[in-house]
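#lab-general

N.A. 3:47 PM
ok so I finally got the sequence cleaned up, no stray characters, all 272 residues accounted for. can someone with queue access submit it? mine expired

B.Y. 3:52 PM
send it over

N.A. 3:53 PM
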Amino acid sequence: MKLPILIFAGRDEEKREFLKEIDPDGKYKAKMLLPMHGKTVIEWVVEEFLKSSLVDGVYILGLSREDIDIEGDVHYVPSELFSTLAQKFNAALDYLEQQGKFNDYLVFCSSDCPGLKVETIDSFIRFTQEHSDLGFILSMVKEETLEKVFPNSGRGMAIFKDENLIQGELMMISSKAVKKYGKVIDSFMVIRKKRAMGPLLWYVARRPLAWTKLIKIGRGKGTLNDAIIGFKRAFRLKAAAPIYDDPGLGLDMDLPEDYERLKDYIKKTKMQ
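B.Y. 4:20 PM
back already:
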């Protein structure tokens, strides 16, 4: 079974430091429209998905065809540039249903990770297909995998007893979870942008069954499996966090120096 892929574009209403430094004159509407080796950043991302035989179309949210016209099985879901994550998910669900492409599993990715490889995409989609009982899947990359290629990456880590992990840019969420946890989904956006754990911790604190695992993790004695169990207890969702040996999966354009890092990485890995 092929799966439709959601690509989240757009940006905050207030420009972040990345765009202020890379594009001080405001030439580009959003960072995924920045040029990179003859294409835009988002084109590198979309074209990698289109290489996969497991992808049933790419659906872009936050941009229109007037912003960037990408060839192939690419669709533009009506969604505002500044819309929230939950608003984008709901827009995607409505659009897919109208197109007769509704799917219980929404695989999604950011639009500013041009280093992502099709082999990782295929592996993630197969994992999703093989675990149809899951409500949430979060891809992960080992710290050592990322730091070997992108030293001092500045990425936030999940520190566990046995390994340090970095969140990847590929994820899956079930349509039921989207409808049930809209506000919580938006809190994840706050966490990623501001490194603020407040909204999520407030929600988890209301789920005492998750406390033992979270306390264990907080003391540095927890494992990735403890985190997954804690998530399941807090949100009543079955989840998984597969780990991939793909540094391009773990680096998006968050810091100003990421643009040149990814530009060099693309040249070495996709232009030889």
